[in-house]
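Methods, example record. To illustrate the input and output format used throughout this study, we show the complete record for DoxX family protein. The sequence lines were provided to the predictor; the line carrying structure tokens was produced by it.
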Amino acid sequence: MAERVALGWTVVRVVFGLTLAFGHGLGKVTGDMSRFAGAVERLGFPAPTFFAWCAALAEFLGGLCVALGLVTRPAAMVAGFTMLMALVQHRADPFGKMELALLYLTVMVAAVIIGGGPFSLDARIRRRA
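The corresponding predicted structure is encoded as:
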């Protein structure tokens, strides 16, 4: 049973990590940052371009790290904070608009609690040490 749970967690971690990285982060990292920086500015952050880059990298690199199970807890913490800010940004929107940020936030909180699990690079590195 424990192995099936670990495998199930791995599927969730990989799918959510990759979709966060490639479905949301990559477009921000490779696209026009000014539009995203405007949204960050509306949240009241100082230096909105800097924080927009931080959020974009948190989504892209954080998502990749969660998918790989590499420094899973810190990566999930950073990506989760970014999803919390996305949830704040969409708080007045219909539920369907904020639902995605809530789902990502939930999985990132779970990743902070659970870690990468036995099928992760973190576990492989621990076994070698």
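Annotations derived from this record:
The first helix runs from residue 2 to 30.
The CA atoms of residues 14 and 93 lie 28 Å apart.
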